[in-house]
Structure formats: structure tokens, C-alpha cells
Amino acid sequence: MRPTGKLHLGHLVGALENWVALQAEYENYHLIADYHALTTNLDSSALYQNSVDMVIDWLAAGIDPAKSPIFRQSQIKQHTELHLVLSMLITAARLERNPAVKEQVRDLNIENITYGHLGYPVLQAADILLYKGDLVPVGEDQLPHVEISREIARKFNTQYGNVFPEPEAKLTQFARLPGLDGRRMSKSLGNTILLSDSPGEIQRKIRSAVTDPLKVRKNDPGRPEICLVFTYHQKFNSLETHEIETNCRSGALGCVECKRRVGEKISALLTPFRDKRAYYEAHPDEIREVLADGETRARDRAEATMTDVHNAMHLG
Ligand code: SF4
Fold first, then answer.
1. Reduced to 3 states, what is the DSSP secondary structure of residue 267?
2. Rounded CA gap, 316 and 160, in Å?
3. What is the pLDDT of residues 153-177, one digit of tens each?
4. Judging by DSSP bridges, how do beta strands 30-32 and 70-72 pair with one another?
5. pLDDT in tens, 247-272
6. What is d(CA 125, CA 148) in angstroms, rounded to the nearest whole number?
7. pTM (2 d.p.)
8. Whether residue 263 has its Cβ less than 6 Å from ligand 1
9. How many angstroms separate the alpha carbon of residue 248 from the centre of ligand 1?
10. What residues pair up with 171 in beta bridges, in sequence order?
11. Terminal C-alpha separation, the chain
12. Ligand 1 within 6 A of 231 CB?
């Protein structure tokens, strides 16, 4: 995950819930993709603090660093080394067809894409293959990148010998939570609810969420199937979803009340998270220890993989 600072609900639903569940069953590696962050923002001055903020959110969400190493991409030099090797195995035309990059170019109004930005799925392939990952827990929007990683792994294995497993995507059922304006939830689009938001901030933000545009007055019948707030009820208030749906359709429920109710559910869900967050913010030494330990363990694994790569390529 790129260190863009504090995380939002979309991260919790699309990634963190999945990661926490998976750590009981799998050996997980949690990468802070600080080099990746440079693809869309050259200013690196906040990268360290953003990484720390993100690690705090990960720990507060339940990632256990003793089970699953947490580490920064920039501190494991083998990422850039493997990236170079892998970049020979894919064409520029293939990268230009990548729908995820096309979407970013459109959303961020990028006129001239850099070499590094176009090739970031190759760096991502290195991030996965360096640890010989079998499964990549991702949101739907990252599926094209996992496909690129699979293609590159196949190409390497065919060219030099079997070193890498072909990684597969592990999607969550509710992988993509829309933002308050109905578009993908993203900090750059200003439509997020942060995991660290207070109950008051959550209610204020929810009040701005888009609903059924034809439900103007409280008693107008609504169409929950096209309403963003109803999507949030389905995710965060499943016990009351049926009643909300019925009362929205009949006009018995107004949008103001409906939003207040889902805001309360989201606040309640995030209360234990905020408490844990406060603890880690007060103990920065623990965060530094988590990173130092994770980086040592990740480096050992990365070195072993690069030995396999060099041997397969007769560069050993
Ligand atoms: S009542 Fe709720 S579900 Fe219905 S349109 Fe308003 S916000 Fe959406």
C-alpha cells in the first residue's frame, strides 16, 4: 500500500479486513510502497511520516507485526534490483494498455506520464515476486496489475527457469467501497471517511453523501438501489438494511435520518480502532521497532530470492 497518510474506510473494507483475516491462515508480507508514492508525487518530504501514520492504522486495524512483517520498500534494495530485471520482460505497449493506469491518468489529469509511472506495475510485480507470493489480497481496481505480475512471472520462468509462483488475486466480497460522491473512495478526490475521524466528523461528512436525486422531500419515495448511503447501510448496518429499504421506498424514512443512522454505525465500528490508534501515537518507539524488525525479516527473504534469480540467469 502506498503511504499517503491516514487511511480511510475504503482501505478498511477493501484491504485491511481481508489482511487481518488472512494472517491467521497465511504467511503475510505487508509492504509500505514508498517508492511507488513517487509515481504521482515527487515531494518525498512527508513520506516517512505518512508511512508511520499508515503503520499506525494497520496496527490499529489488527495487523500483527510478529506474524506478518511490515516494511518499507525503499529499505529493501532488492525491490529495485528485481524491478530492473523484470522490466526487460514486458513491452511498453502492454503497459500502455493497462486500464488502471489509464484511469489514474484520467482522474489525476496527467498530461505526460513518466517512465516510472507507466512502469509501476512492473515494480509492483517485483514487490510480489520477491517474496514468491502465491496470493495478493487486492481490491478490484488492482486486478490488472496482478495479471501483469502473472505474465511477467510466466515470462521469467519460461526464459530462465522456474523461480516464481504465478501469483493470484484474493478479492474481498465487498472489495470496492464508493466515496461520499459515489466515485471510488480516494484521498485525492476528497470524498473519504478517515478511520481516525471523530464521530462528529463522520456525521458531518455523511451529511454530504449523495443519495437518490429524485427523493427531494422527506416523504418522497426513494430508490435505495441507486443510493450510496444505502450501500453503506448494507456494509455497516446489515441488521437494519431490510427496514431501511422498505421505509425508503414508502417514503416513511427521510435521508437526513437515514444518514444519521449509518453515521452512528460507522462511528461505533471505529471506536475501538480510534482507541488503539491513540495508544500507538503515544508510543512512536514501538512503531520504529515494528519497522526495524519487519525490514530485517523481509531483507532476508528478498536476498534469498535474488540468489535464485541470479542462479537461474547464470549471473551467480
Ligand atoms: S432514505 Fe436513505 S436509502 Fe433512501 S434515498 Fe435517502 S439516504 Fe438513500
1. helix
2. 13
3. 999 999 999 999 999 998 766 557 8
4. parallel
5. 999 999 999 999 999 999 999 999 99
6. 7
7. 0.87
8. no
9. 6
10. 138
11. 32
12. no
